[in-house]
């Protein structure tokens, strides 16, 4: 069975590092693993020093490890082309042009990006049966979190739309009693087929997220990060999803015990402040702290990633 | 005349600190200043150690300085109530119930939040004539940026909707030649009035953003932050908006020159890496670096904020 591990947390806390290191650990434990990034800045390619695209690609140097990066712009463009193609089958050419213009404008509005991304997410979940673990590097704060809570709402909505469409066809059929042509409308109705398909997608996404997904939050030992994580945890719980653990990233290293000077004082003050924050995290946030990772001087990649992976004791 | 200063940058780089410090400098220069935050974590209240709400409130301890925090959840709820009230005036009670249910579900979908926030943004801009400077603490990466690029697209869309509505009323009138009642429809049509109002809102927002707004990006001296800023700058330029400058925040302090030990080595390595990133920022990003701010051990608030304000030499 495939387990889906979502790594969340606000931008800049080190989600990509942590999720890549976790993916590495899973692969080393012998599990077929896929790391999926939706970060438009494409950090996964940086971490593994290898270019990834929209399809799963083996990560060089490691067995059982694949990675892919979903390009949000591309997803929106594809979504638009798909819709156009479907319209072409259902509408007259004159109507297609008109609707197509409206669609193009609609794709520039907020929400279009999230909707397209959601579809791509579900597609990846649906076609992942060859993997034991799929690791999503994504942000369940803000936009992405609303996405995860979406299936339930959208399901209700689709059901209403479906009901209305069926009613209106029913009226049409009744009005056309005796005409064989009209009586067959419901079966072949492309709108009902499409709505039914959407409904199944949302059901699948809701079930998978509730039953086969684990959420881990990455945060830094500072007030802002703690506050945002608290909010995100509340939202995740409201969506009936549960969080397995917290990873505290970017802890400042201590100076030597006998070290004196401006630098040592700065570092000791910082370590002290961070320890207070860490205590607050343990005391006031529900999920357990499953890993503490020290900050690095340079961006985590290559052998530094293997170092970090060893600091993560997350159950793969 | 009111100038609108937008501070952008990805989460966690210190936008709230920088925009609050900038607001403080504006107020001290004798300008009536309003700081507006859309951060759901409400950092502005933390920085000034004072609770702010949805209306401008004087900041204690400072002349000419006001602050407000837009609560995104509340904005969405109000938006929903407004729509319901308007519907009540235009539809039959039975229809209101049905549409109201659909609306409630629509408000859970992605985009609803952004749409509501956009309206509130514009409202603040429209009613800000008593201030010389309005400082927006917001993120022009991702969602907010798409918002700023929106007026132009939405304007085209609304114009098409308006055109369609006028056409359909025209046909209706033609079909009802002689009936006085029908001929007067266009003038009093509530949908045309509403579309016209939206059109003016988008025109105002587009003009104000182009003519009276300045954008400043806050970033940290690391790869990820540089990459995201590069992307955001490209998007902002595509939306025909210009960026006045870059603020590099969170620079690591140097140890004493003669300091030895693990701590001093760590800090020197870090400072060296950050200086490389700073050089990259100056060489590869267009807007000038207008301020460099050293990292603080604790969260910036109170007297620490005044310290930071002195490090910002941004032209108010």
UniProtKB/TrEMBL annotation, chains A, B:
This is TRC40/GET3/ArsA family transport-energizing ATPase. It comes from Halovenus carboxidivorans. One of its GO terms (molecular function) is ATP binding. Belongs to the arsA ATPase family. InterPro entries: ArsA/GET3_ATPase-like, ATPase_ArsA/GET3, P-loop_NTPase. It comes from the Archaea. Residues 3-310 form the ArsA/GET3 Anion-transporting ATPase-like domain.
């Amino acid at each position: 069975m495939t387990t889906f591990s979502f790594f969340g947390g606000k931008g800049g806390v080190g989600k990509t590092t942590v999720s890549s290191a976790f993916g590495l650990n899973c692969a080393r434990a012998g599990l077929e693993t896929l790391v999926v990034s939706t970060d438009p800045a494409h950090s996964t390619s940086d971490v593994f020093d290898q270019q990834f695209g929209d399809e799963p690609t083996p990560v060089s140097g490691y067995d059982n490890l694949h990675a892919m990066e979903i390009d949000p712009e591309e997803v929106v463009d594809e979504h638009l082309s798909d819709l156009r193609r479907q319209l072409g089958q259902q509408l007259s050419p004159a109507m297609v042009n008109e609707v197509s213009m409206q669609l193009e404008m609609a794709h520039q509005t907020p929400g279009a990006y999230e909707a397209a991304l959601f579809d791509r997410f579900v597609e990846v979940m649906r076609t992942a049966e060859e993997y034991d673990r799929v690791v999503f590097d994504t942000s369940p704060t803000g936009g992405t979190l609303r996405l995860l809570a979406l299936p339930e709402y959208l399901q209700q909505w689709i059901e209403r739309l479906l009901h209305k469409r069926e009613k209106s066809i029913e009226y049409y059929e009744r009005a056309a009693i005796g005409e064989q042509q009209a009586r067959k409308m419901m079966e072949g109705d492309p709108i009902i087929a499409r709505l039914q398909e959407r409904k199944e997608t949302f059901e699948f996404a809701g079930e998978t997220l509730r039953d086969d997904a684990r959420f881990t939050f990455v945060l830094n030992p500072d007030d802002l990060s703690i506050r945002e994580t608290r909010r995100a945890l509340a939202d995740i719980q409201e969506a009936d999803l549960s969080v397995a653990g917290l990873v505290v990233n970017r802890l400042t290293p201590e100076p030597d015990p006998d070290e004196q000077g401006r630098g040592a004082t700065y570092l000791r003050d910082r370590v002290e402040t961070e320890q207070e924050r860490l205590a607050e995290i343990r005391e006031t946030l529900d999920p357990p702290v499953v890993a503490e990772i020290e900050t690095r001087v340079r961006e985590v990649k290559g052998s530094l990633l293997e170092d970090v992976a060893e600091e993560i004791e997350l159950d793969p």
